[in-house]
Design a protein that fits this description.
Blueprint: E1 5-11, H1 21-28, E2 33-39, H2 41-44, H3 51-66, H4 68-71, E3 75-79, H5 82-92, E4 94-101, H6 107-122, E5 126-130, H7 145-154, H8 177-184, H9 195-207, H10 213-216, H11 223-226, H12 231-235, H13 241-249, H14 258-280, H15 302-310, H16 316-328, H17 333-346, H18 352-361, H19 367-378, H20 391-398, H21 403-408, H22 417-420, H23 428-433, H24 449-463, H25 467-480, H26 483-487
Parallel strand pairs: 1-2, 1-4, 2-3, 4-5
This protein binds flavin-adenine dinucleotide.
Flavin-adenine dinucleotide (FAD) binds near residues 340, 364, 373 and 377.
Length: about 500
Amino acid sequence: MEKQAFNIVWIKRDIRAQDHAPLHFAAQSSIPYIVIFLFEPSLSNSQDCSLRHFQFQYYSILDFNNRRLQHGNFIHILKEDAKEVFNYLVNCFQVNNLLSYRESGTQLTWERDKWVQNFCKEHQIEWIQFQRDGIQRGIQHRKDLEKRWFQAITAKPISNEVAKNCLQIDHPFLLDDAFKLSLESYSKSFQPAGETLAWRYLNSFVMGRGVHYHILISKPAESRKSCSRLSPYLAWGNLSIRQVYQFVRSHEAFASNKFAFEGMLTRLRWHCHFIQKFEMECSYETLCINKGYEALEHTNRIDFLLAWKEGKTGFPLVDACMRCLKETGWINFRMRAMLVSVLCHHLDIDWRLGVYHLAQLFLDYEPGIHYPQFQMQAGTTGINTIRMYNPIKQSIEHDAKGLFIKAWVHELRNVPENFIHEPWKMAMLEQELYGVKIGIDYPLPLIDIDAAGKLARNKIWGHRNHPLVQTESKRIVVKHTSIRNRMK
Ligand SMILES: Cc1cc2nc3c(=O)[nH]c(=O)nc-3n(C[C@H](O)[C@H](O)[C@H](O)COP(=O)(O)OP(=O)(O)OC[C@H]3O[C@@H](n4cnc5c(N)ncnc54)[C@H](O)[C@@H]3O)c2cc1C
């Protein structure tokens, strides 16, 4: 019997129905198509993955499928590795095209994609990979990159009409009950997933939440409302960068909040700028991007690492951030940078020992941003100013009354403002009065922060003169910065 011919749309980090190039291409084709999303067991166990990511993907797909009357598409959720799935599909059907966005992923997804590429060649399937958010593939330098990115971001978004040729098929790769149950246990403390909610967040940001964006951006408590909070929607593709860019830029509220909104739009550019770095050099995940920093030694105390992971360092703001992150999946940029700085500089731990921990906790985990940002904050690029964030200073500046700390470090909830940033300075009598024994109920600080900061500064600044750091810095500047930035 002749096999039925169709195309496959493979959804990855692009779970949305609008401004979707692969869906548009498939809908325009003369043959039908199916849409698939894979929960791949061989990737699910990797160190950067966590249940909260799968849950966000799952609920994004449910939202998509619930609206299928509006757009005509249906995403099949398959729990199996790409290898098995594609083998099965070519056995049952005649697959003409595989359509997806390009993924700037980790080593594992890159290897998987190489396998898929070979498989497609072998079976005469054309794999058309569309450009995601203006990120370029296969380039060796950044000449004209900004111009090309800007063209992509300002081009009209694709208007996906109601599809008529999207099929639903039976397949053997259904979610088992245990996995489904775990997906459905999505905590209400996380941001709700899906395109519908993504637009609601975007709208409320522009209509009011974002007015003081630039003033409150570094405040751990206030920024939860004043930042756009679009990061998980962008990371999992509920929205494209150009949808957001154009919505904000053309909104009637833009003119009266220009300063705030332009700051946010600049960060959309950073989003792509970092992913572009990663696309051009994916070793960011596992190796110091500046190879000269491989020679820098760390004490790597495991007890320090565990305390950092558990939010028990004895530095209230650090612990509040880690506990908040565990519970909600989000903290702002400054607090992320501070967590990395404390880990790599003050506690003297190799960035690789903490990088996956935060990847798992971030609901918005995006490899292309995460690894380059982590290395930048860890000071291993050799081209960026090394910033050391003293957690006590950050705490006094950005959580002056200690409200964020008290919300997340319950042991300190009765401690007054004058002690909240350095509770170990309380006398025994005060500790009794405020119901917390430092060293028993809440830990003493792991280190003397000033002494550790000084040591770290000397060490990392001293290492900048290492000949390999110097050579590598030159290479990185040429490869990863634009001529305009180099001139600056
Ligand atoms: C160590 C470290 C790891 C990080 N890992 C991630 C990650 O895995 N995924 C992620 O989306 N962001 C990451 N960031 C960047 C940043 O902290 C988040 O994008 C931001 O806090 C998200 O909140 P928001 O959506 O309210 O951002 P807004 O301030 O409202 O900005 C709008 C969008 O711009 C982008 N953006 C904002 N800040 C940055 C930045 N500094 N670099 C690149 N893009 C930015 C995001 O897509 C964000 O959603 C990381 C930062 C650090 C220091």
